[in-house]
Amino acid sequence: MVAAAVLGLGTVPAMPAASAVTLSPVIRAPAGTARGELIGDLAVFKGLPYALPPIGARRWRPPAEAPAWQGVREATDFGPTCYQPPNDPRSIYAWKALPMSEDCLSLNIWAPTKASSAPVLVWIHGGALLTGSSADALYDGATLARQGLVVVSINYRLGVLGYLAHPDLGAESPQGLSGNYGLLDQIAALKWVQSNIASFGGDPSNVTIAGESAGALSVLYLMASPQARGLFAKAISQSAYLISAPELHQARYGSPAAETLGSALAEKLGTQSVAQLRALDAASLTARAAKAGYLWSGTIDGHILPRQLVDVFDRGEQVKVPLLVGFNSGETRSLSMLLPPLPADASAYETGIHARYGDSSDSFLKLYPASNLEESVMAATRDAMYGWTAERLARQQSASGANTFLYYFDHGYPAADTAGLHGFHASELPFVFGTADRTPPLWPKVPTQPGELKLSAAMVAYWAAFARHGSPDVPALPRWQPYGRNRAYMAFTDAPHPGTHLLPGMFEFNEQVVCRRRSSGDTAWNWNVGLISPPLPPAAGCR
């Protein structure tokens, strides 16, 4: 129980002697003793190390267990962000630059002061496995914690430092593995939570992992990884993308082997060995690797990630836990880099689609007609990446017997709609976290109108209820039905609206496309959609 008597609340002067004092919560956990800050009815601890960072000459190794720290650790500041390329200052997602370090494996905790065996939500930030930080104000856990949760947010290694696969690294590994270091960091953080969260008032048997975008992809990796079994009881996946990933030793699905990709990157950087890569400055290495155009991904290695995610879920090998999953109506409105160029006119569009989709082109054009080219181009990529992923996960997790809930975030507000960003990628986050006043500088400003506040309160309540008992049941709100045979979902527009059969035909069409690409063995199912799609392989073996 995180209460004054258990915490050993220390009295720390915040002002001159004549003024009031602030009580600072002190937690004694297996990892060590930490002093946080008291914010109203919450005890908040920041920058707690969960593993030893492999840096310098030890770079690209699994995280090592950290020994208990000595003395009282001051935990009032976020830890450094993991190295990443500079933000594009024009991006709506860009924050002011934060301090960066290879010594970045830390986590943050928001806990009600009276918490005892409370449900735990562990948040994994997004950013394409290349950028992002647990220090982003958008992810402040206070509002969710005031729903009775213990909220944890984590950093993990990113980009070249987190996901490089290379033959030299495989030679160092007893199992011949390389890559997936950022994923191993996430697993280490979950192990730390299992060992320590009870000291903060959390229940280690009731942990929900949650993330958005690359954080949601990480949730799927964790559901698929044998190394993460038993570390969580529920999962939330917001705007995940169930794309093909490189395999460690062999070229497959249109991608060279991950080790081949790593060797090619090392050559581009002018290095001949991992030892030379380790000698490079981390900041320079990170920026140069990103500039070289390498796309960071988990690696299918037969151990940490045993097989392609679609195969894991098809075979029922994923962990069978309750799942809340969904996507946004305008995912690609803010992700123009994923879209093919607009065709010159409707005729060029239809000609291009027929050339690429062959006997499935009429089905494509029915869903994504030439009558509104811009909207169709955006919707086709949205559905191929995010919509198909969400519904596929809902179908398969539901079929496994786990409670599964699908959502569709289709909310617009004046600043977003004026900018052409209705329901854009990640736009649900300030509503889920109750942080509409803490969005990045160029993010379309969410108005503080009663309707916006009410929608946010509903989403906070649904997410907290799911973390609490695996079902988003909130008595005062519309009932969110499990996905089930009716293909039920919850639409978030101006308010929560239950529905069934989301975007009819969308899932079936994209499932057929992916099946044909998987059957061919040489085509990726990523963002190669519409006019940048390779010719669709034959339908043999696909129903």
Task: Write up this protein.
By secondary structure, this protein is of the alpha/beta class. The chain has 2 domains: 1-321, Rossmann fold (3-Layer(aba) Sandwich), CATH 3.40.50.1820; 402-503, no CATH class. Helices cover 31% and strands 16% of the residues. The chain is built from 17 helices and 18 strands. The strands form 4 sheets. The chain has an 11-stranded mixed sheet, sandwiched between helices. It has a 3-stranded mixed sheet with strand order 3-4-7, with no helix packed on it. The model is unreliable at 3-21 (pLDDT under 50).
Q: Key terms for this structure?
A:
alpha/beta, 2 domains, 3-stranded mixed beta sheet, 17 helices
Question: Which percent range describes the beta-strand content?
Answer: 15-25%
Q: How are strands sequenced across the largest beta sheet?
A: 5-6-10-12-11-13-14-15-16-17-18
- pLDDT < 50 stretches: 3-21
CATH homologous superfamily caption of the largest domain? Alpha/Beta hydrolase fold, catalytic domain
Name of the level-1 CATH class of the largest domain: Alpha Beta
Total domain units: 2
Distance between the ends:
54 Å
Averaged pLDDT, please?
94
Number of separate helices? 17
How is the main sheet built? 11 strands, mixed
Provide a concise account of the structure shown.
This protein has helices at residues 4-7, 142-145, 159-163, 167-172, 181-196, 214-224, 258-268, 274-279, 282-291, 309-314, 346-357, 361-367, 373-399, 414-418, 429-433, 450-469, 506-520; strands spanning 10-12, 22-24, 26-29, 32-35, 37-39, 42-49, 72-74, 81-82, 100-101, 106-112, 118-124, 150-154, 202-212, 234-238, 323-328, 404-409, 488-492, 496-500. By secondary structure, the protein is α/β, with parallel strands linked by helices. The chain has 2 domains: 1-321, Alpha/Beta hydrolase fold, catalytic domain (Rossmann fold); 402-503, no CATH class.
